[in-house]
Design a protein that fits this description.
The protein is α/β, with parallel strands linked by helices. The chain has one domain (about 5-245): Rossmann fold (3-Layer(aba) Sandwich), CATH 3.40.50.720. It has helices at about 15-25, 35-45, 60-70, 100-130, 150-170, 190, 195-205, 210-225; strands at about 5, 30-35, 50-55, 80-85, 130-135, 175-180, 235, 240-245, 245. It has a 7-stranded parallel β-sheet, with helices on both faces. It has a two-stranded antiparallel sheet with strand order 8-9.
Length: about 250
């Protein structure tokens, strides 16, 4: 039977790359995001490969998340794989100068949004005694860096949630995978720097950063592992990166 994967943040970056990768491997997809036009564009790339369903919501909107997931049709309600990819970074400043709206945006999406979606999906996994949840944290959840306190805190929360999910849900036959990417070239830095493309570009200069497809490859490996295997916690760095803040620039292929 074809499995169903629900992917949040499917309109860009890791979420989009994962949707493409899973479609190539026969998974039917529930694609979630805020931007309908991007989802339509993604669907056109997947056309004919698998079945695709859209859910248009912002993960921060608890009532909409609950309503749309809880009202999926019989065909779509039994979600086999949940990939919590939606998230963001806003601003890069010392905590004494931080923008509280930026803090709210990161905590609401990276932590509360992940919980809202997970809470809506988990009950049917528990009932069926099977399922797989993949949370995308960050190497920033492993080590805090200056000027990124709240972002790092939100990703540390994802790490703790992944660990707690594994403690609570393993007895129900549900696998939990936490993936912590390093420097991945996506829209991440452009969003962090409020659309400043030049500043965002400098983040990835002088080395070969990870691509969203690299993380999608890891997700595919995790979901395709034998049933006896759980890929519990993975850190993925670019070749030139040794810590969240140590990158050896000019180390190019």
């Amino acid at each position: 039977m074809t499995k169903i994967a629900l992917i949040t943040g499917a309109t860009s970056g890791i979420g989009m790359a994962t949707a493409i990768k899973l479609s190539e491997n026969g998974y039917n997809l529930i694609l979630c995001g805020r931007r309908m036009e991007r989802l339509e564009n993604l669907k056109s790339k997947l056309l004919g490969k698998v079945k695709v369903q859209f859910l248009i919501f912002d993960v921060r909107n608890k009532s909409k998340v609950e309503y749309l997931i809880n009202n999926l049709s019989e065909e779509w309600k039994n979600i086999d794989i949940l990939i919590n990819s939606a998230g963001n970074a806003h601003g890069l400043a010392p905590i004494n100068d931080g923008d509280i709206e930026d803090w709210d945006a990161m905590i609401d999406a990276n932590v509360k949004g992940l919980l809202y979606v997970s809470r809506a999906v988990i009950p049917q996994m528990v009932e069926r005694k099977k399922g797989h949840i993949i949370n995308i944290s960050s190497v920033s959840g492993k080590q805090t860096y200056a000027n990124g306190t709240i972002y790092c805190a939100s990703k540390k929360a994802v790490e703790a949630i992944s660990e707690g999910m594994r403690l609570d849900l393993t007895e129900h036959g549900i696998k939990i995978t936490n993936i912590a990417p390093g420097a991945v070239e996506t829209e991440f830095s452009e969003i962090r720097f409020k659309g400043d493309k030049e500043k965002a570009k400098k983040v990835y200069e002088g080395f070969d950063p990870l691509l969203a497809e690299d993380i999608a490859d890891m997700i595919l490996y995790a979901v395709c592992a034998p049933d006896r295997v759980t890929i519990a916690d993975v850190v993925i760095y670019a070749k030139a990166q040794s810590t969240p803040t140590t990158i050896y620039r000019k180390l190019m292929q």
